[in-house]
Amino acid sequence: MADRDVTSIDLKDVELRDGSPEEQEEQQHRQQEEEEGDAEKVLMNTPGDANGAAAKLDDGASPAARFTGLTKEELLKISTQPFWIRTRLALLVLFWLGWLAMLAGAVAIIVQAPRCKPEPPRDWWQLTAVYDVSTAAFADNNGAGKGDVRGVQSRLDYLKQLNVRAMVMQLIPEDSATTRQEVNFTNVDVRYGRLDELQKLMTEARRKDIKIILDMFPAKWFSNGTSGTTKMREEMKKALKFWMEQGIAGFRIGVEGLGEKEEVNDLFEEWHNVTSTYSTEDKERRVLIADARQDSDLAEYLVENGNADLPVVYDLRKLSANSTETDVHNLVKSLIMKAANKSIGLAIGGRNGYLATKNPGLNRALGVLLLTLPGTPFIYYGDEIGLRDFEGAEIPMPWNDSSGIVNVKSQETHKHNSTLLLYRNLAKLKWSESAAKFGDFNFTLIEGGVFAFQLVWDQSPRLIILFNLGSTQQTLDLVKEHKLPATASVVGSSTLHRLGDVDLSKLQLEPMEALVLKYNYVA
C-alpha cells in the first residue's frame, strides 16, 4: 500500500516535467486557477451559520470569497412560509394601531384644550392712543416761527416712534373769527398751509398707518348767535362731507356753547348720520368725538346718552399728590363703569395746561394711568416729554436743546430713563397686547397706600399696574397673597430706572411710583 503511494505519479506532474520551462509555468498557473474555482464552488455549496457566514475550507485555506445572499427565487419561496406571513400581518396591524392611537391622542388634546376666547370687535380708535397736536406750535417747516401742515408732515416719524396711530390737528383755527362769514370751513387756513399740502400730509400719514382727525369748534365759529339755526347745521354737514372726502378719519368737536344737553345730543345725532354714510363696510369707519373739557356735567351726559362715538372725559385731572388709594379706586371704578357699555376717551393735559404743570411730581404716574386704563388716551403734545406751561402761552414743541428747557433731543439722548420712553412703551400696549386691547379689568389690592389692578385676557400675557400713593416705600409679596408667578417683566415705571425682571415675592414700590408689569399666563 505504501509502495503504491510512493510510486503513484500524478499525470499532471508528468506533463509538467515533460514540457519546457515556459510550458510548465503556464500549466502551473492554469492549475492554480482551477483549484481556486473548485474551492469557491465548495464554499457556495457549504451551509453557512445562522448569520449567513461562509464555512471554512477543510484544508484551512481562506480564499477571497463572499456570501452573495439568497436568490430571488429563494426569497419568494421563503416569503410564502406561514411564519413570515404571520409576521408581516402582525407588523402591519401594529403600525395601523399605533397610527390610530396617535390620531386619537391628538384629537383628545384638541378637544380637551381650553378654547381661546374670540376677540370682540374693536373700532380702530379703541386700539390706539391719540396724539393731540397744536398745528401752530408743533413744528415749523419754513422758519416763519409758526407751525404748519408741512411741519407736521416732517414729524410723522416721531409720532410713529411714539406708537400712536392717530392724531388730532387744527386746520380751521379756533379763534380766527367771530362771525360765520369770516370762516372758510372747506379749506386749510392760510396760516397753516394749503389744501394740496394737507393732501400730501394725509398720503404720507396713511403710509405710516397714522390717521388724521380734524379739530372743530362750531360754537366759536358761529358766535354771532346762529349756532342752533338751520343754516349753521347745513354748513356743518357740508364741512363734514368735504373733509371726509379729503380723507379725514374723523372729527373732534368742542361742545361748549352749542346749547343745552338735549340740543347738543340732537346735533351729534345729525352729524353722526353724516359720518355713518362714509363708514360703510367697504370704507373705514369715521369717528365722531365729543369734547366737553370745561363742562363735566355735559361730558357725563354725553357718555350716558350721547350719539358721539367717543365722548372725552377729564376725570383724571381730579387726582393730585394728596389723593389716597381710596380716591384713586373710586375714580377708576367710576371710569370703568362709564366704559362698560360705551367707548370713552381719557385726557388730562390740553390747551388749558400741561400735565406736568397741573401735577408736578405726579405727572408720570398719572401718565401711566392714562395709558393703561380702559379707554382711548389723548396725549397732548409735549406731555410725553414732561413739558410745562410758560406764562400761559402756547409753547412751540422743543425739538432740540436751543430753548434751554426739557426737549425731545435730550430725552432721546437718555432714552433708557426718559419720560418719552415711558410713553412710547405704554402707548404700544394699546395695539400690541391682547390684555390691553380686550382685557377684563380686575382690582387686585388696596392696602398700605397701594392701588393696583390687572388687565386679563384669556391665555394671553397679563398686565398688572401698581400705584403707590404713600410717602414711604412699600414692599409687597404678590406671590403669596395674590398667587402671581415668581417674576414679571417691567413694561414701564414712573421712576424711569427699572429694567428687566422683578421678584414679585418682594416687590418694592417707591413713593408716588406707578409701575406696569407683564407676566405670562399659567394654567
Automatic annotation (TrEMBL):
Residues 1-58 are annotated as: Disordered. SUPFAM superfamilies: (Trans)glycosidases. Pfam families: Alpha-amylase, SLC3A2_N. GO terms for cellular component: apical plasma membrane; basolateral plasma membrane. Residues 1-32 have a biased composition (Basic and acidic residues). GO terms for biological process: carbohydrate metabolic process; L-alanine import across plasma membrane; L-leucine import across plasma membrane; phenylalanine transport. This is CD98 solute carrier family 3 member 2. The gene is SLC3A2.
